[in-house]
Amino acid sequence: MDKSWITKPLSSIAYQQGIKEFIDFSFKGAKENDVVICPCKRCGFRKSKSRSDMFDHLSWSPFPQGYTMWIHHGESFVRPSTISPSTILNMVEDTIIVEDPIQNMINDAFGVDRNHANEIPYASNLEIDQEDYAMPSATQERNEAKEYYELARGGEQPLYEGCRRYSRLSFLVKLYHIKCLCGLSEKAMTMTLELIKYAFEYANIPSLGALSGWNTYTGPFCPSCNFQTTPLHLKASRKWCFMGYRRFLDRRHKFRLNRIRFNGEQEMRSPPRTLSGQ
């Protein structure tokens, strides 16, 4: 099987066709609702995904280039005598599970086994009944579980929408490191946090509408797109979503022609002109 597509750009036809062949190979013999280990950078061979989810992940996250023998997805291992040492090394490096240091820190703080962290009941399901859990030890365990998952959620949520570098928790840890390394006092750290809060107090979309008079709550949401915005009002949630984001894709990107996965229409428009504010 030709696997040269692994090194191709994500937007290329060869890469898109390649991930389809990889997914077909991985789900060979699988049932409709079965899941398979996802090799994308985010999942890192740790999570199993459905066929459609895996396709979405690999469409925006590069396929691991050293993973040329799909031993985790049904391909038989070739005899070592036919593989060069460098190839074996690349295979091992690209199939090593990449651990999240923030998640490991939380696990260590709460004494959770890293290999079984996902087996703990989720915090939202831990409703405490005073009659059933009158013992202090039981209540304490559930409080600790809630604290654990609050921190875990903070480690997964981005610092702000679209931020890929820091989560909310990792940003706080970074600030704490700076405080310790630079010997900042509690007063200096508090004043710094207050300054950050004050500086970005109005740096959000609702405040943009309140201060500038631009309506950010209905259809013409984006100042750049103006009346060329493509809004869609969701009846169930009573919220607005915007379907014009495919305008920013490459002109040859397959999503531009995909009607089924989006709003039933093709998107052939160019990106809107970015306003300078002058």
TrEMBL record:
It holds the Pfam family Transpos_assoc. InterPro entries: Transpos_assoc, Transposase_21. Coiled coil: none annotated. Residues 3-75 form the Transposase-associated domain. This is Transposase-associated domain-containing protein.
